[in-house]
Amino acid sequence: MSQIYLLFPPSWTLTTGSAHLALPLLKGFLESKGVPTRTHDLNLEFANRLVARLPVATLQSACSEGSLEGMNKPYFQAEDEINRVTIGFDGEWNAQLGFSFSRFSHHSSRQVFESLDAESPFHQYFDERVIPELERENSRIVGICLASLYQLIPTFQLCKRLRQTGYEGFIVLGGNTVSRLLREMSIPPVFDLIDGLIPFQGEMPMHELYRVLREGGDFADVPSLIWRDNDGTIRQNTNHSEFILDEAAAPDYSDLPVGKYWGVNYLNVISARGCYWGKCNFCAIPYGWGENGFAGQRSAQRTYEDIVTLMERHSIRRFKFVDETLSPHFMRAFSKLIIDNDLKIEWEGYTRLERDWCDASFVDLVSKAGFRKGWFGLECLPSDKRVHLNKNDAADPLRLLELCSAANIKVHFFCLFGYPGTGKDEAENTVEFLLRNRDLIDTVDIFPWTYAKHTKVTGVERIERPGEDWALEYAHASLRADTLNSEEIAELASYWEEVVWAKAPRLLHPSYRMISPWSIE
Ligand code: SF4
């Protein structure tokens, strides 16, 4: 019997080879403190009721020719199969994002609450499978991780039904979406359905919350907790706890269906929480990690031990670091441990275009340690306009591609078009570069710049749509002649994305991403 039951709600991406890391991190920590904890991935389980998982062999054969039609086939067959069921609920399922209702926007708290009793693809699943399971367990705490806005409506639909069945335990929401919308979610209608919100790192707050519920005590003592007191006042506690990352246990995936996700399966791991740079002008990522945008670094030694533990538990040798940016310093130290201990693994991760990526000895070292793919923020081809982005990197993409190609490391470039100070020329030059070097590039993303919540950008005016209080991005109007407005940027990015789709579809295709970059069986 678990004391804490952690749920990952439906309506997240299906094109991933691993469970989201949040629940395994919490379970690992809480169990190491003696708190029986269960985790349950509702996203995959719900999808499994509608469609069979996309197997590796099908994806490999679909991608073997590299044609758009070939890669489209299995992907859209699977997506269509889900939509055949969910279409009756007036919405659409995107396999990379989740389900969106046509009539209700998850950008609006009012519409989220209006949706709670509407017809939903999730109600039957919640009533037949999830709520009976929660009733059986009757855990003191039900914790729900909101990694994406798409999970908001199903989460509140579940909470309402759970309350209606008489569950009297403590329901708490956490995850990246809660961290980013903390102020906007701290409202009475939310607290009519749930009992608490926990932003940022959940380990210490969850442990203390459990102690208070078990031993009696004051919710005011639970670090970071947002809760409603007996007078109906919503209170926000400060974070007075110290969380030392090296003292945490390894992530615990033992309740989750490891090996049963779409495509080639791997395990998510993490060393640093946040981005050590954290100052790119367009980027809201650091905000999701804590007040200062960075919540600490686990040592290379402890991260190495996590990998060994997970290999032994699950016989899996592929790992994805979900750190926002792996630092070269960490990669060097971690690689040396892998090589010295002759560990045969493959790993990939997000990293910045630091000077080290132009150093053949660094690239060779991480390659020897099994690093198979780097996900880099190129944004635009380097020019004197790069300064507007405040990347503060040492981007030399051609040198990077040549060194990585020679070292058997694949490269992904994130591209961002239309940030104020950059425009049509930068977009065109970047796409020309991508296409010219398509044989050296594994995958790319092309995003239009949108004004992200928690960023401050000059030269444009942010437009907040009435009622969209839970939006994380905004439209904008241009205030300068050299700056594009939202519609122009969307058009620009879409135009160049179409060019890439037409000439090099592998670079963008989700089918290919479900098998790359792995080679270890
Ligand atoms: S874009 Fe990348 S490097 Fe820049 S702040 Fe965001 S996460 Fe950090």
Automatic annotation (TrEMBL):
SUPFAM superfamilies: Radical SAM enzymes (SSF102114). Keywords: Iron, Iron-sulfur, Metal-binding, S-adenosyl-L-methionine. Residues 265-477 form the Elp3/MiaA/NifB-like radical SAM core domain. It comes from the Bacteria. Its cofactor is [4Fe-4S] cluster. InterPro entries: BchE-like, Elp3/MiaA/NifB-like_rSAM, rSAM, rSAM_sf. GO terms for molecular function: catalytic activity; iron-sulfur cluster binding; metal ion binding. This is Radical SAM superfamily enzyme YgiQ, UPF0313 family.
